User: Fold these one by one.
Assistant:
Number 1:
Amino acid sequence: MKKNYSKSRLLKRQLLIAFIASLLTVIGICTVIFNVMYHQALNSVDKHSRELADKTVNTVSEAYYQMNLSAAQGTMSLFGKNIGTEINAYDQHFRDQEDLITYVAPSAQPYLRDTCHSSGIFFILTKDGIQGIDLQYGESCDQLAEELFETLDQIVKEEPKYYGYYPTFRDFVYNHRQTPGGNYLKAGKGQIIAWDNLINYSEYDLCYGIIVNEANNWLVAPVNEVTKIESIALNRKLDTIFRKYVYIMLASIGGVFLLFIIISFILSKKLADPVVSEHDMLVKVNEMKTAFLSDASHELKTPLAAMSGYAQNAEMDLANGENPALVQEKLKRISSESNRMALMVTQILDATRIEEGRMVLELAPCDIESLVRETVETYFAVLNKNNNRLALRIPLELPKVEADSSRLQRVFVNLISNALKHTKNGTILVKAEEEDSFVKVTVKDTGSGISEEDMPHIWERYYKGKHSETGTGLGLFICKFIIESHGGKIWAESEVGKGTAFMFTLPIK
């Protein structure tokens, strides 16, 4: 007999193929967008890490210079007191300033070598010039002292008014030689200068001081190195986190696409079946599946939109230099939405297995209490969006049942998911008890309840209820099939506005 095909079905098949092509295009665009977001986020992290490193170095080095300047000024004061005490104790008298310098200068190197940096230069400043002594070797270094003062002239150039418009820093120090003072220059290799005067400790006017050269080598260089290492480590950590959750997101999208291909293949075969006497029945089934596909698309689109929104917020947080912990929280939410999507995909696959007769139970002794707790720990935080509380009342001595634990867990997930979805700020109770030769399990909520017109149809495949806007209509259909396959029964009691209780029984082992 020659096969004839319905033109309307062929048209639907073509539309379905166009839909799959559109979905593939959207997934490709999303992949490109996520890739761009990923690289932009890494660039933002790298930029802000460098800025943070610079701020860290500036903050730490400022405290470092202040501390070392105070230490150098204290050392100069202590040195002046000791030399002044010697001069006063021995009633020393000097014919001129050169005799005084000849007495003071040799004392500087052995006294200051152990209390100051080895790179320090001890100097004596007079109106005629500068005499310098290398504290490490005790050698004269007048020329080096002159060069260091010339470098310190940058301080006067930056703040000429503060230093009285003196032409050089040396002139400023000499004109303020009787007042202990100091300053530092962080530019270049870094320098610290502190000075004092013997007039503060004896009758002689002699300005002396110390210049610590290459001060940056003691802190700034190591801090730069450490911050560079920490910055690289942070980048790698964020790179790992971002890559992980982007891959999860892309894998979820790929899973959805694969699921649509499977569904499309199945529907395409059925849409291409020859026209037979059961034409009206096939049309009805086709309409049901088309409605299911539309609803499934909507349900899967919601977590995808949420993941996209959290990803964009994470990118903005990174661009604004927010705490990485905030970014990590948003990435955790992306993971939660992907788990939610995975539950829906599993539900659809279970319905497909039931329809094709491919669902096989693997029975084994099963502990209801352990199974419920494992299910709650795995899925409750993911599914609970309405601030509900959970109560468990399962006795430890409850007998084991002969069941397929993975399928039975699907029953608990579906029932708890339904309860959480239709309950807000309420309580979900999971209770189990021994009853004759069965274990009776109750999942009860304080939610909106089920209307009388919906109650007879809740176990039908694809039926969502006239007042329900979410879901695929497969959850209770799957629950009924699994429980009855175990030799038990399942039923529901509900009151509109007060809540619903789903109960099922399983034979005791």
Number 2:
Amino acid sequence: MSDWSKSKKDLENKELEKMANNASKFLGGILGDISGRSASVQILLGALSGWATGYATMKVGKVAAFALGGGIILVEIAHEQGLIQIDWNKVTKKIDKVTDKVETAVTGQSPSWMDKAIATAKENIPFTTAFLGGIFIGIGTA
């Protein structure tokens, strides 16, 4: 790594550290020791911080779900167009092993209705992958 890029990275790290410290001081000043505040202030601060956390989580979650769903659909389109080759037998064998283990661990019984769902999904791989991608896009745009 060159000295220039190292010094640039150090400068960026110092700026990020300074921003983090400023944010910590700001939040510490607002929240501080909330146990000494009145119940209504605690409720207000809890509701506002919960809303902000939920809002940020939904925004990040939507972007991630949209990207994941779109990626799944793009991979399936690329496969259908012959741009990439996917060994579906290998993929489905791994999925079978994982689902069998999960179902056995959760229910303590061997797979039953899950076998039927997996068999149907195996017979319609393009639909299944596009459906899963659509689910993620739907979650991301909700």
Number 3:
Amino acid sequence: MGVCPSSFPIEQNIKINQDENQPKVDTNQYQRIIGKLLYLQATRPDIAYSVNILCQFVADPRQHHFDALLRFLRYLKTTLDKRILLSRLGGNDLVAYSDL
């Protein structure tokens, strides 16, 4: 069974806060996923803001935090080809493309 893709990593103008009324989720699972995302953002600068938002709740994640994380993972699944490739041979040249 597939998941519904997402075309952007996090909802625009989302207000994720620490709502004590939301049910708790597995803290270890949330922290493991966030840890992997922190490592991934080295090659995916487009996800830095979203990862920062999601990292704010690693101590006590709630259901709406986990829902936002799942949406973010759906975005990653649809954008696997967007990354910065770091060559083993080194080099300091940065090439950027724009469609403006």
Number 4:
Amino acid sequence: MAISTESGNVWPRRKHASSFVIPSPVDHPKSRTAEESTREASRQGAKSAAVAFVVSSVPTLVAVRKIPWAKANLNHTGQALIICAATIATYFISADKAILQSARKNARYDGRD
């Protein structure tokens, strides 16, 4: 059950004889633009999420200490859910708006393609 010398020599030639080359998508300028817009959208979403965290946590924590209904019904988990829901929603909405704005800007025909 050994490989004969004739069939053993076919594999190395076939492995390197391919002339079909596919260019890397990283080399394409539009992929770099997409990568940059994604990075910028993530950065913008993080900034908006930080603001939303402060804006939602301060009233929530004050309400739990001052309002009797909130003091009786909102435990630590409820407070965290309120704050996290606002923060996460703001992140995704802001990032999505930035990506759509970048897509609109890059979708215009510039005559170079």
